[in-house]
Specification:
The chain is mostly helical and 148 residues long. The protein has one domain (2-139). Helices cover 53% and strands 9% of the residues. The protein has 6 helices and 3 strands. The chain has helices at 12-23, 38-45, 65-72, 78-91, 101-114, 118-139, and strands spanning 2-6, 29-33, 47-49. A 3-stranded parallel β-sheet has the order 2-1-3, with helices on both faces. 31% of the residues are buried. Residues 3-135 form the ChrB C-terminal domain. Pfam families: ChrB_C (PF09828). It comes from Ilyomonas limi.
Length: 148
C-alpha cells in the first residue's frame, strides 16, 4: 500500500514509516508532498494519508500518530510501546514522558537540517529507528561505564 504525508519530516513522519514497514505493511511505499496536496494526491494515488489533521492516521488528543498506529493495529510488543512513549515525547514537546525523548528530538531536528531530500532522510531515519528498537528490545539494561 502507498502511504502519504506532508513533506519535511521530523519525528512522526519518520517513526511511522518505520513502524508501518516493520509491523503493519511490509510492502509499504511512502510519499511526501506539500501539506496542501496530501489529500488530493492521496485520492489520485490511492494512498493512505497519515500524520496530518483530517486523516484517520493522525494525532488523538495528547497521543501522536505513532500511538494511533500501535493502537489501531494492536501492537503489543513492549519495545514498541516503549518507543511510542519516546516518540510521543519528542513529537509533542513532552520530554518528561521518556528520558530519551529530548535526544530523539535533537537527532531528528539535526537530520532534517542536514538533509533536504525527504527520502534520503527517511532512509537514514529507518536505520535510526532500527537501532532504537534494538536498544529497547535487547540492550536497554546495558550500561556504558568505563572503569580505569
Amino acid at each position: 500500500m502507498k502511504w502519504i504525508t506532508r513533506e519535511r519530516p521530523k519525528i512522526d513522519r519518520i517513526a511511522c514509516p518505520w513502524l508501518i514497514k516493520n509491523f503493519v505493511d511490509k510492502e509499504a511505499q511512502f510519499i511526501y508532498v506539500p501539506k496542501d496536496k496530501v489529500f488530493i494526491k492521496a485520492d489520485e494515488l490511492q494512498a493512505i494519508p497519515y500524520d496530518i489533521p483530517g486523516a484517520e492516521y493522525t494525532h488523538e488528543g495528547d497521543y501522536c500518530t505513532f500511538d494511533y498506529i500501535v493502537k489501531k493495529h494492536n501492537l503489543t510488543d513492549p519495545a514498541i510501546r516503549q518507543i511510542a512513549a519516546i516518540v510521543r515525547g519528542a513529537d509533542t514537546d513532552s520530554f518528561q514522558l521518556a528520558p530519551q525523548a529530548a535526544g530523539l528530538w535533537a537527532i531528528s531536528a539535526g537530520l532534517s537540517y542536514n538533509y533536504t531530500d525527504d527520502y534520503e532522510m527517511l532512509s537514514i531515519g529507518m536505520k535510526m529507528y532500527d537501532a532504537l528498537y534494538s536498544w529497547a528490545k535487547y540492550v536497554q539494561d546495558e550500561k556504558h561505564i568505563w572503569k580505569a
